[in-house]
Structures are given as structure tokens and as C-alpha cells.
Design a protein that fits this description.
Number of helices of chain B: 8
CATH architecture of chain B: 3-Layer(aba) Sandwich
CATH topology of chain B: Rossmann fold
Shape of chain B: globular
Strand content of chain A: 15-25%
Helix content of chain A: 25-40%
Strand content of chain B: 15-25%
Oligomer: heterodimer
Structural class of chain A: alpha/beta
Distance between the termini of chain A: 82 Å
Distance between the termini of chain B: 44 Å
Number of domains of chain B: 1
Radius of gyration of chain B: 21 Å
Order of helices and strands of chain B: HHHEEEHEHEEEHEHEHEEEEEEEEE
Number of helices of chain A: 16
Structural class of chain B: alpha/beta
Chain lengths: 477, 392
């Protein structure tokens, strides 16, 4: 690996800047990244840009996203190539894993109808971001909330980009605090948007992506001058952010959560189940909240395990496991030792890139992530109930017919998403994210009332009588 | 050879366990293997674990002995007890700062050897006479009040063989009483061994400098143990710590400040010599492994593994959660035997990215929220009943 630092730009109001004093970030694997320092002047530039974007038609906004998306589908697109190469070096994820995310993002955004569906799903109607929409005796329009600061975590390349899409789609100004964990993907995603649409496009000028050390005073200044903080991350990170967000500035948080899977082998083909399970137990090397960490099975588990061997290995060919750090290796080996001591079945392939530990559900140990599956046999789904709380995100079920059997019990205990096994990272249109429709937080829902002369379904009155009642007689009631 | 006699003999009858007596150090392998045989006979789960191990333990290297990860002691499903339950005098508890609480069964033999090990190591490394002029001041509770919390219990035992006063009651650590006690004991001509966790020693040092200011003597010692626990924000590196404490107490040299390494799962405490190297006594075999391939390391940093023949009631063949270096070259202090240097704890963050890791134990402080689960309110370890809170 080259010792030379990777030089990346900062983006300030659409300008891609390489010049100026640089911050050097050093990673445990020896990789160094240099990025221009975020300055007081940059802060002034960002906060002085108050160009309102609400009048840009949705069609133009979606074209803005789609034009860049189509380029992202091209493996030879320079920005994608660099992003995959640098992203893999910095995050340790395989190039295949990051490239896959660029494809998914590009494929999703190139069809503008997906964005319309998203708005319809979360805000009731896509028209609402362009015009006043009838709502009982009022009309409502979703205006951008202003400037959204995204504090990203960088564990899932796709999620970082999606956070930015939400912001752009709702016509907001977007400031990305680039995460150290993955300083590349969201920056290069923004760069692609700007490159394909021009830096003078008003939507481009509303985009900034910068690295700000957590101890910098400018971080507090930027937070205090934002209209929404959209923060992702670990408990400790979110606690810290919460402590510095002033009252009056809303905070949309996506904190850490757990997920798991349930499979009824008496109702499905074990091979089909294994193929789907292997996919969702290996994506992002289990660092995503939607990755299941344990599997509850009804039926003969012995029929499933050989297929899991095959498909977990196959995943390694298709989406190779990224680098894992020293401490994760240590934790994983301790957990396998512990399982061996307790006499549980521990399955690993020769390279130990994945691990399956078959044990009673109540005897579970710490989870090292890193493509590890705790597998528990159960008689009834009731045995799963005590493992659910409101830190639970997704429960994937197979076959999908289990969904209606378990959804009420699981979701009333705190789970927020039931999906078909294999689909944890492919939510269908209409999904909720951590129990919310986040786009609602990105807009200010303004309304304009109708006048008294607008006779709606209530009562049968003359305007004059109603005026008399409201302004003179009501005080006597 | 009687293993019990040998460990006990080493601890109690040798004047200096770190002397260059080859016969002493040759005993290590035999003691460990004797201990292995004992636990294989008296601990069914460990015996089964041993049977399933790939390596031939009896003939091979000590590093082939199947290890027990320290996390195992947190798992209620694990049976770590060797021998009868009726022999157990205490289930030693960890402080739980990294999650669930470890519970380690200790019988009288194990406890006496733990204490015996300290009584053998400390004089040999500090050069103090058990019957001399020293008096202990423990910045913690006495052993009876420790309620099986190993950290407190171990602190209380460090100076067990000399006259000792304890500075913590149920109302907490009393810094005024401590300063007063130091003053009185120094006035009566006694030499001190002040024992406590580093954060408390630091608080005391600062208070001493501010309120007393009189330099302690050349025979006084400050011994720290237990790490920074819940006071991580105050943590400073070892050299800075020694410099600050040395200056505050007016000590002649930082050789008067010694640290001690121990954990609830290990039955031996490792004390520093005057060169701040922690010495490993002959009844312990220590090595480190590469976490990637589990191979024993010959040099450099690795995950520390400790094989301790002094534990009778559980197999003390521990893979720790610590990263460090085992040095087999002779220490510059001139004493014999290997030394151990801990560089850091293995990071066990509860979440990575946005994935909240599954872990039974104290990994959330939301236990009273509406939706509960086994993660938030783990079933208490059956052995914890009556042993106080497991969530301190």
C-alpha cells in the first residue's frame, strides 16, 4: 500500500476545493487522508448562502439526482472509481461491497418515479413540495426546513448517500459533516451531483461536505446555525451531539439498533432460506442496524446448516469480507472459545470468514458482528418475544407468510420493521425508517386556511351569521 | 510431586521468589500441568472441553492448554467450578465496567494462595520486611466490607500481612481521615504503604500537596491497582501519573510508586519492581497470542494469556481481554523470570456503525423504559443472589 496520503477535496457551497491547509487523518491500517481544513471563511460562506430553493420544481430536483445517478452506474466513471478505491482503503470494506452500493444508489435514483413514490409515501403527496395541496379546510405546502446538517457515521456507504438524498429531494441546503469512518463515500457522492449538474446550479450551491474535528469550535457554530440536525451513530456519539444542539433546533436521530431473523423450515425450502440468510448476515460485515445478528428457527436445523455453509462461502466470493480489526479478531476468538467450552456447535469455514454458533437463545454471549450468526431452535415464536425491545429494528421472516403471524406481537414490543428474509437492505416503497417517515422532519408543513365564506361539510350557515357568532356572541356562551 | 505443596512452598518458604534458582523456574511447567490434571478430574465441563481440543496437551507446549476466555465467567450457563460447591468461600465479582459481571468461585485454598502470592511477591519486589516498620493505608474498604467485589477485596489484601488502616466506609472514601492518618503515622515514625486505585491516589496526592505539603520519606510507597474504572475521564499515562504523584507527595524517586496488575479471573497479582516492570511469579505461565491466527507470539504485542497454578476451585487458564507484551529477557532490576506489560484493554464497544451489538449484561441504561427485553434487564446470574447489585 502506498504511504502517500490520499488527497480529497472539501466542498463548500458547491465549490470543490483542494487548496489550502490540510487536515491529515491517519487510519489504523496505515492509510492517510488529507482534506482541506474547514475554516471560519467556509463557515461564513455556508451561512451567508440563504438562497431559497422552494421554487425549484420537483421535476428539476429529481432530474438533478437522476443525471448523477446514471453516471454512477458506470463502473468506469472516474468519481465512482475513485470513491470505490479510496473508500475500500479507508473503511476496510471490499471494493465489491462499496461498488454494490453505488450501483444500488444509481439504479434507484435514475428512475425519478422512485423519488415521487418516496414523497407520496412519506408526505402524503409529492405535489406538496411544489404547490399548496388541499387538506380539509386548508391548503398545505411542504417548504424546505432550511439548512440540514448531516452528522454521518459512515458504516454503510448507501445510508450516507441516502441521508443526503432526503435533504436534496426536499430542497434543503445540505451540510455534511464527513465521518472519519468513511470520509470518502458521501463526499464523492456530493461531488458526482455537482460534477453532473454544474457548480452554479442552485442545488449544487446548497451542498457542502467538510471534515470538522469534534473538538473544533466551528462544529458548535455550524450546529447552532442549522435548521435540522440529522445525526447517525453510536450512543456515545449521539449523547455528545444532543448535549450541544441548542433548544429550538430539531434533532433527527438514527441510533444503533439490533435486528434478527426467524425462519420456519417446515414451511420453506431450506436452500432458499440459506441463500437469503447468508446475504443479509454478511452485508456490510454486519455493521448495519438492519443486519440480523441471530436466527430463530422452527424445524430441523440440520437441514439448514449445510446450505448455510455453501451460501456463506458464496457470499464471500461475491461480496468479500472487509478487513477486520485486531480487537474484533480477539473478540471473535474469545466467543468461539466460550461456545466450545459450553459444548455448543461452532461452524466456521477454513478461512474463518464467517461463524455460526448454535446455542440456546438464553445462553447468548457478546456478539462480535463480523459475519457471525447465533442460531437458536425454537418451538414457538413466543420464545422470541423477550428478545425484542425498542432497540430492535428489523425482523426478517421466511417464508413471508410468517409476517402476519408475528407482526402484531413483535411490533407491539418495539420492533419497527418486518420484512422478507434477504430483503433487509432492500426496503420496499412505503417503508418506515426506525419507526418514522423522516422526510416529515426535513420540511416545514405550512398551511393556509380558507376564509369563512368557504363552506365545507360542517354545518349550514350564512357567513354573516357565523361572523356574528364568532366575533360577538361567543363571548356570551 | 504434590502440586499443592509446591505452589504453597514457593509462596511461603522461599525468601525471594525472583532469585535465580533454576529449580524454581523449572517447576512452572510441572505446576501448570499438575493443575491441568486436577481441573480435568474435578470439572466436568472443562474436561469435556479438553477432550474436544485438537492439541495433545499433556505432551505439548503449555500454550496448547485450552484456554478459558475471561468472558466465560460472565455467562450463567458456564460451569467453571472445579470440586464441590460446598468448599466455595466466595464468588468474587468483577466491577462490571465492561458489561456483565464476572463471577469466580474461590475456595479457601485459592484465596489463601492469592494472598500468599501477594505476600511473597510484594516484599521481594518492594524490599520491605513483613515484620518491619511499614504500615498499610488502603484507600478502600477492608476485606470484610468488600462484599466479594474483587477489586476492593484484592486492594484490601495487598497489605494483609502488615498493620493496615482502611479509609473507605459505607459512606465512601474519607480523604480528610486519610490525610489525618498519614500525618499521625508519619509523626510516630512509621513508613507507609499507601494502596489504592490510581484515580483515588491522584485525588489524595493533589489534596496532600495542597493541604499538607510535607514530603514523605524515602521508604514510603504508593501502590496502585485496579485501573481507572469509571473515572476514565481522569486517566493519564503512567509516566505522567508517577511524576504528578511523586511531586505531590514529595517522594525521593518514582521508584516509590508501583502499580499492580490483576483481574477477578486471575488468582495472582503482578507487582512492579523499581523499574516499573511487572514480574510474573513461577507458578504462573504467561504468553501472548496473535488474535488473527491464535498463534503464540514470540515478541511484540498480543492478547495476554495467563496459566495460573494457584487457583484450586476453577481452571485458571485465562485468555484475558488485555493486550500486552511478555518479556522473557532479564529485567534490568536483576530479578529473574518474565515480566508482563499491559498496553491496553481490548475495545468492546457496544455498537459499531449503527449495529447495536447483542450482549447480555449492562449494555444499556434504559432498563426502566416501557419496552423491556433480555438485553436491558438480563436475568440475574443465579449466583448473584444476595451478592449486591450487578449493575454498579
Amino acid at each position: 500500500m502506498s504511504k502517500e496520503a490520499i488527497k480529497i477535496p472539501k466542498i463548500v457551497c458547491g465549490k470543490v476545493i483542494y487548496d489550502g491547509a490540510c487536515e491529515t487523518i491517519e487510519y489504523d491500517n496505515g492509510v492517510k487522508v488529507e482534506i482541506p481544513v474547514f475554516t471560519e471563511e467556509d463557515f461564513e460562506t455556508i451561512t451567508k448562502n440563504r438562497q431559497s430553493l422552494h421554487d425549484i420544481p420537483l421535476s428539476e430536483v429529481t432530474l438533478y439526482l437522476a443525471s448523477a445517478a446514471r453516471r454512477m452506474l458506470d463502473k468506469n466513471y472516474e468519481i465512482r472509481k475513485k470513491s470505490v478505491e479510496y473508500g475500500s482503503l479507508v473503511t476496510g470494506f471490499s471494493k465489491e461491497m462499496i461498488g454494490r452500493d453505488f450501483f444500488i444508489m444509481g439504479d434507484h435514483l435514475q428512475y425519478r418515479s422512485n423519488m415521487y413514490d418516496l414523497l407520496d409515501s412519506e408526505l402524503g403527496s409529492h405535489h406538496i413540495v411544489d404547490e399548496w395541496v388541499r387538506n380539509q379546510v386548508a391548503k398545505v405546502r411542504a417548504f424546505p426546513i432550511g439548512r440540514v446538517m448531516h452528522i454521518l457515521v459512515g458504516n454503510i456507504p448507501l445510508a450516507s448517500c441516502y441521508s443526503i438524498v432526503r435533504s436534496v429531494l426536499t430542497k434543503n441546503h445540505t451540510v455534511v459533516k464527513l465521518p472519519r469512518r468513511d470520509i470518502i463515500t458521501s463526499l464523492f457522492f456530493c461531488q458526482a451531483l455537482i460534477a453532473e449538474n454544474g457548480e452554479d446550479h442552485p442545488l449544487s450551491r446548497a451542498i457542502s461536505a467538510v471534515y470538522i474535528p469534534k473538538e473544533s469550535d466551528l462544529l458548535q457554530n455550524l450546529i447552532s446555525s442549522s435548521d435540522l440536525i440529522c445525526a447517525w451513530g453510536r450512543k456515545e456519539s449521539l449523547d455528545k451531539i444532543k448535549s450541544i444542539v441548542p433548544s429550538g433546533i430539531p434533532l433527527l436521530e438514527f441510533g444503533p439498533r439490533r435486528s434478527f431473523s426467524i425462519v420456519d423450515l417446515d414451511q420453506c425450502d431450506p436452500q432458499d432460506a440459506a441463500r437469503r440468510l447468508a446475504h443479509e448476515f454478511t452485508l456490510y460485515d454486519q455493521e448495519a442496524c438492519f443486519n440480523p445478528q441471530r436466527l430463530f428457527v422452527k424445524g430441523d436445523v440440520d437441514k439448514l446448516i449445510p446450505h448455510l455453509y455453501r451460501y456463506m462461502d458464496q457470499q464471500q466470493q461475491k461480496l468479500p469480507k472487509g478487513e477486520i480489526d485486531y480487537d474484533t479478531h480477539a473478540a471473535l476468538s474469545s466467543i468461539c472459545m466460550e461456545a466450545n467450552y459450553l459444548g455448543y456447535d461452532v461452524h466456521q469455514n477454513n478461512e474463518k470468514v464467517w461463524t455460526i454458533i448454535r446455542c440456546p437463545a438464553d445462553h447468548v454471549m457478546d456478539h462480535p458482528l463480523s459475519r457471525t450468526m447465533y442460531l437458536h431452535s425454537v418451538e414457538t415464536w413466543k420464545e422470541v418475544h423477550k428478545h425484542i425491545d425498542n432497540e430492535t429494528q428489523t425482523v426478517s421472516v421466511f417464508p413471508i407468510s410468517l409476517r402476519d403471524q408475528v407482526a402484531d406481537e413483535f411490533c407491539s414490543r418495539g420492533a419497527v420493521r418486518i420484512c422478507e428474509t434477504g430483503m433487509t437492505s432492500h426496503p420496499r416503497q412505503g417503508w418506515t425508517h426506525d419507526g418514522k417517515h423522516p422526510l416529515k422532519d426535513f420540511v416545514s408543513l405550512a398551511n393556509m386556511d380558507e376564509g369563512l365564506d368557504y363552506i365545507h361539510k360542517y354545518g349550514d350557515y350564512k357567513t354573516e351569521d357565523m361572523e356574528n357568532f364568532l366575533f360577538d356572541m361567543l363571548s356570551d356562551c | 510431586m504434590s502440586e499443592k505443596l509446591c505452589v504453597d512452598t514457593l509462596m511461603s518458604e522461599l525468601k525471594n521468589i525472583y532469585e535465580n534458582k533454576p529449580e524454581t523456574w523449572d517447576l512452572t511447567a510441572a505446576l501448570i500441568k499438575e493443575s491441568l490434571r486436577y481441573h480435568a478430574q474435578h470439572n466436568e465441563q472443562y474436561a469435556s472441553y479438553l477432550d474436544n481440543a485438537r492439541e495433545t496437551v499433556e505432551e505439548g507446549e503449555l500454550a496448547n492448554i485450552p484456554l478459558v476466555p475471561s468472558t466465560l465467567f460472565k455467562n450463567p450457563a458456564a460451569k467453571v467450578l472445579s470440586g464441590p460447591q460446598s468448599e466455595i468461600q466466595q464468588y468474587s465479582r468483577s466491577s462490571g465496567t465492561q458489561g456483565a459481571v464476572s463471577l469466580v468461585p474461590r475456595d479457601e485454598t485459592s484465596i489463601l494462595r492469592f494472598i500468599g502470592g501477594m505476600s511473597a511477591s510484594m516484599p521481594a519486589l518492594l524490599g520491605v520486611d513483613r515484620m518491619g516498620n511499614h504500615v498499610g493505608i488502603v484507600l478502600g474498604k477492608d476485606a470484610d466490607s468488600a462484599e466479594n467485589l474483587w477489586f476492593s477485596y484484592a486492594l484490601a489484601c495487598i497489605t494483609i500481612e502488615i498493620e493496615t488502616e482502611f479509609m473507605e466506609t459505607k459512606d465512601g472514601f474519607d480523604i480528610d481521615k486519610t490525610l489525618d492518618t498519614i500525618g499521625k503515622l508519619k509523626a510516630s515514625g512509621r513508613d507507609l504503604i499507601i494502596v489504592g486505585p490510581p484515580f483515588r491516589a491522584l485525588d489524595l496526592a493533589e489534596a496532600y500537596a495542597e493541604r499538607v505539603g510535607k514530603a514523605l520519606g524515602g521508604k514510603d510507597f504508593i501502590i496502585t491497582a485496579g485501573g481507572w474504572k469509571g473515572e476514565k475521564s481522569k486517566a493519564i499515562d503512567n509516566k505522567t501519573f508517577r511524576r504528578v504523584v511523586c511531586k505531590s507527595f514529595g517522594l525521593k524517586s518514582d521508584k516509590q510508586i508501583r502499580d499492580c496488575y490483576n483481574m477477578v479471573e486471575c488468582n495472582t497479582a503482578f507487582f512492579e519492581c523499581e523499574h516499573h516492570e511487572k514480574h510474573i511469579p513461577p507458578w504462573v505461565y504467561a504468553y501472548s497470542v496473535d488474535p488473527v491466527n491464535q498463534n503464540k507470539k514470540t515478541d511484540g504485542e498480543g492478547v495476554i494469556c495467563l496459566l495460573d497454578a494457584s487457583a484450586n476451585s476453577y481452571p485458571c487458564f485465562i485468555k484475558t481481554d488485555d493486550v500486552g507484551i511478555i518479556n522473557h529477557e532479564q529485567c534490568s532490576c536483576g530479578r529473574h523470570g518474565p515480566t508482563i506489560r499491559i498496553t491496553r484493554r481490548i475495545n468492546k464497544v457496544e455498537s459499531r456503525g449503527c449495529a447495536l451489538k447483542m450482549a447480555v449484561g449492562k449494555n444499556t441504561d434504559n432498563a426502566n423504559r416501557f419496552h423491556q427485553s433480555i438485553y436491558r434487564t438480563p436475568a440475574s446470574h443465579p449466583l448473584l443472589k444476595g451478592a449486591g447489585s450487578d449493575n454498579e
